[in-house]
Design goal:
This protein is mostly beta strands. The protein has 4 domains: 42-110, SH3 Domains (SH3 type barrels, Roll), CATH 2.30.30.40; 120-187, SH3 type barrels (Roll), CATH 2.30.30.40; 202-270, SH3 Domains (SH3 type barrels, Roll); 283-350, SH3 Domains (SH3 type barrels, Roll). 8% of the residues lie in helices and 40% in strands. It has a 5-stranded antiparallel sheet with strand order 6-5-4-1-7, with no helix packed on it.
Length: 355
């Protein structure tokens, strides 16, 4: 028994000695590294029959894969408008999908912007000649087709031609009236070597009893404020067909008004075109105390949650009658609400039928 105790005591001493000998080496390593920080990510479920995964955020980019209804993906980024999402599939494939066809567990705007942010445009004619310079006298270097998305690199001084880059990498000039740009053409840099003319401005007087000032050039845009008969405003731009004027009020508010309801100090056609051709993101503000969000377009469907007066939602679609709309809440939750209790920034009839 004494021998056993002596051996046990000896073993304990050896273990303790080895531990204390190792402590300086552990301390010399310094503090353990902290866990790496990761960007915001989420998951999404495909809610359409088949969803194309593209090489970039737009229908002009090539299709790299197709996802089926119910498939789950990881959300890793978005474009600036939150209309396209960069995803990673279970196989590790990365690409871009239309955000409208995903049910996400987080709000899309909370994802980091992972596209280059370069201004783009959609070709609006069947076949578009891409030329070596800003004019029809220059040779055709390639062509683009209707629906293709091109990057905008700049413009000529008159803003009548824009320099573009195709998804293939080819560059050239196209007629600005044949593309739908994501930014006002006038906001692009002049890259044809000429000097742009100074912008034309002027004033106007309201010629009707009460005039709605809207967030964009058309009655489908939301009303920002209302101005009265005889009020003077500063003219800063127009839409492409000179039917709406962009104005600045004395308090600095900027918006759009119907040009036919103004007395103008300059010809409206002389003002720069400042409209953004890209359609506004469809949104709405709840105009009732509490609005039920249901899992289908009708009161017979279950209530999933509710939203309060003044909350903003993103509009995803509508039923065929336009009486119910599918919405995405700020937290990414998707459901259906009665359209009568929303103040929308677009006509509900312009939304796709999704239920």
């Amino acid at each position: 028994m004494d021998i056993y105790r002596r051996w046990l005591r000896f073993a304990v001493i050896v273990v303790l000695a080895l531990f204390f000998l190792s402590v300086p080496n552990v301390l010399a390593m310094g503090p353990l590294p902290s866990a790496p920080l990761y960007s915001v990510t989420g998951t999404g479920i495909v809610n359409t029959g088949a969803l194309n995964v593209r090489s970039g955020p737009g229908v002009g980019f090539s299709v790299v894969a197709t996802l089926l209804n119910g498939q789950s993906v990881t959300l890793i980024g978005r474009n600036a408008h939150s209309s396209w999402v960069q995803i990673r599939t279970s196989t590790g494939l990365q690409g871009w999908v239309n955000a409208r066809f995903l049910l996400s567990n987080i709000a899309i705007p909370s994802l980091p912007i992972t596209d280059a942010g370069t201004p783009t445009a959609v070709v609006t004619t069947g076949v578009l000649n891409v030329r070596s310079g800003p004019g029809v006298s220059f040779g055709v270097v390639t062509v683009a087709y209707q629906g293709h998305i091109v990057n905008l690199l700049g413009r000529n001084a008159a803003a009548s031609w824009v320099k573009v880059q195709l998804p293939t990498g080819a560059q050239g000039w196209v007629n600005a009236t044949l593309v739908q740009a994501s930014v006002p053409i006038n906001s692009l840099a002049v890259v044809d070597g000429s000097t742009p003319a100074p912008p034309v401005t002027g004033t106007a007087v309201v010629a009707t009893g009460a005039l709605n000032v809207r967030s964009g050039p058309g009655v489908s845009y939301s009303v920002v404020t209302v101005i009265s008969y005889g009020q003077t405003v500063t003219l800063i731009g127009r839409n492409s067909n000179a039917t709406w004027a962009q104005i600045r009020l004395a308090n600095g508010t900027v918006g759009w008004v119907n040009a036919s309801l103004l007395q103008l100090s300059v010809a409206l056609s002389s003002l720069p075109v400042t409209e953004t051709s890209a359609a506004p993101t469809p949104t709405a503000v709840v105009n009732t105390w509490a609005l039920n969000v249901r899992n289908g377009p009708g009161v017979g469907f279950a209530v999933l949650t509710s939203v309060s007066q003044g909350q903003q939602v993103t509009l995803l679609g509508r039923n065929s009658a336009g009486s119910w709309v599918q919405v995405r809440l700020a937290n990414g939750f998707v459901g259906w609400v009665n359209a009568a209790f929303l103040q929308t920034n677009v006509a509900i009839s312009t939304l796709p039928v999704t239920g």
